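Bit of a strange request maybe. I'm writing a small parser for structure token strings and I need a real example to test against, not something I typed by hand. Could someone generate the tokens for this chain?
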Amino acid sequence: MEKNILNVAAEVIGGAGRERAADEVLRAELRKRGGISREDGRQISGAVFAYYRWREWLNWKEKPEQQIERALEMQRAFNENPEAISDDDLRRAAPKWISEFMEVTPGWLRSLQAEPKLWLRARPEQGNALAEKLGDCRAAGEGALADSLLYEGESDLFRTGEFQSGEFELQDISSQVVGLLCAPQPGETWWDACAGEGGKLLHLCDLMQGKGLVWASDRAEWRLRRLKQRAARARVFNYRSVVWAENAKLPTRTKFDGVLVDAPCSGVGTWQRNPHARWTTRAEDVKELAEVQKELLRRAAGTLKPGGKLIYSVCTLARAETTEVAELIGREFPELEGLRLPDFLRRNEGATPHVKDMSEAPGGQIWIWPQEIEGNGMFIAGWRNAGKGA
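Reply from user aminoacidic:
Good idea to test on real output. This should exercise your parser:
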């Protein structure tokens, strides 16, 4: 690899830490330097993330550039033969504390060391047409998943006319599953309580065919500004946005047909895509975020219409943020009945589905593990308000 690329990657790694994520530093460094080709930018990004995947195998006495080169060598070797690394050696791939919160299996650890895939979400019923236009695409499945496309090409998708005209979004397959499980209907009123930059909101609006209304809230105003830009490009207008945090007055007195709480979490399920986070996330973060998640669900539960749905999703696999949160909400709100959630993902042959229906859990639950699909890890739980409402 060219020396300049290694130097830039080393600068990014040197500037990243708990207070500033590596991907944020990477974007800023590329903007600052300017004139870097798309291919060089891709190589710099690959070098940075390879370093964080393999950092526990590196020699700290070597120069940063030497460590990065070694990490890239290890990534290439792993890509060619993932089984060449023993199960015992793979334990280096994640911090030791995570075993307190989840079962750490060789399959999961091996998935963390693979380079992530790129998923697109086409507009409803446009998956086949989009795949033909872009090329290098394959659908995740049939039916609901026909619009979820795995992109395996080299084009800069942000520069394509199809992206600029709002024909697709870049969205991980697991996040797309969340919207499909919400299954909002045209004319309904929904609340996306932690809308962020709007990926799942845009999906909900599309599924509603532009009819009805989705309230979008987030504690960060800058994220909602980004949501507005994305919605304008996608020509999505059936939403309202408002700044809101879990400890503030509810943004509206509206009762909803459905509420999605895609809560802030530790992001353990994204450690393949975001390897830097493995080494900055702490056990204390998991515990603190679990309390935030519980409070968000408590606030959301009281806003449902009779028969309304509550969907909880987090891109983490830690028990404290998944089953323990769902079980608490089930105990505190007896009027909430678990939803039977369809599990329509095409999983790797021989994989355990990790699905629980309402007869087995206080909320219907689905686990999505990275080793079973080519996407992020995700936990999803759902309930229906069986009470008479307020």
